[in-house]
Amino acid sequence: MRIPTKAAAILTLAVLAPAVWSAPALAGPALAGPALAADHDSRVTWSVVPADAAGPDGRRVVDLELAPGERATEHVAVTNHSADEVTFALSANDGYLTERGSFDMRPSAVEPVDGGAWITVPDEVVVGPGETEVVPVEVAVPEGALPGDHPAGVAASVRSGGEMQVESRVGVRMNLRVPGEVVAALDAELLGVSFTHGPSLFEPGSLVMRYAVVNGGSVALDTTARVGAHSRFGGPDASAPQGEALEVLPGGRREVSVEVPGVWPLGPFGVEAVISAVVVDGAGRLAGGAGGAGEAGEADDVPAPADVTLTDTAWALPLLHVLVLLALVLAGWAARRALRARRARLDRLIERARAEGRAEVLAGRG
Fold first, then answer.
1. Which is it for the CA torsion 278, 140, 79, 4, positive or negative?
2. Where does the secretion signal sit in this chain (predicted)?
3. What is the per-residue pLDDT across 40-87, written as a single tens digit (0 to 9) for each?
4. Is CATH 2.60.40.10 the classification given to domain 186-317?
5. Most buried residue, 35, 216, 344, 366, by CB count within 10 Å?
């Protein structure tokens, strides 16, 4: 998971999931993973999970619904899996989804403007080797907060390095929802369709449809798509297998590529994608964990947005087949021409032999 880089050269590396990590921090953008603090002789590994006042409570994410003006106290448990005592910096910020669909937080140096601004945590927590500390998380929804979802996160981090500092974070996703009149709005944008030939002339190829899903509403959506291809010349139709639900946060945009296998190169195909979405309640997001769709159904009080249909025409041309056929035709033409030339040369030799025979006969008579 990549985190935006602060202009003042503080690089962040974050994972918002209840996992334990251990790997060297890098002085540049890197995949999210474990972290090694430069001022320690041993690896610093830690985990952060939702908790109650007594300790971890088994949740994977925090789902909280509060009306404007309401407050609540949640908890997270920070566990130090290292051999040394570690001081972890604590922070809260707005949440978002990366290009790969993983949930992440804005860098701690960036001021939160949404749900992250409603959360207050201590500046730091000191955790002994092999110990767990429970940290209170205060959530206060301001008056006038707009109804809908306001994703955020809480992270524990360590920094390493000198001038070029690296902040390594592990955190917990917090799904904050303000009840009221919310809007579920779905839109989509076609990005293109392409055809790829099969591995051999006797196997079908595939169409790839690329599109972007846009959430223009105020609640998170889980989107699915039915993608199929219909031959204009009466060839066999094809369809893509049903994929997993794709989460799109309010104001978010996700690009998707769907492969439709079993397409024979028989000319133009009409390609259609029907994109549907449901609003999943807090229990559904909790079941799905960080960055994933849950198993619960659609929220009862929020109607699903209307389906969006994208259509296009893709040309699945039998170019390889035509080239092979052309090569065979050229080879046949060349063989036939060579045979004709051979026959013509043989006819000339025969005619020359006949002429020489006639000349010998006439010379004998003379």
1. positive
2. 1-27
3. 445 899 999 999 999 999 999 999 999 999 999 999 999 999 999 999
4. yes
5. 35
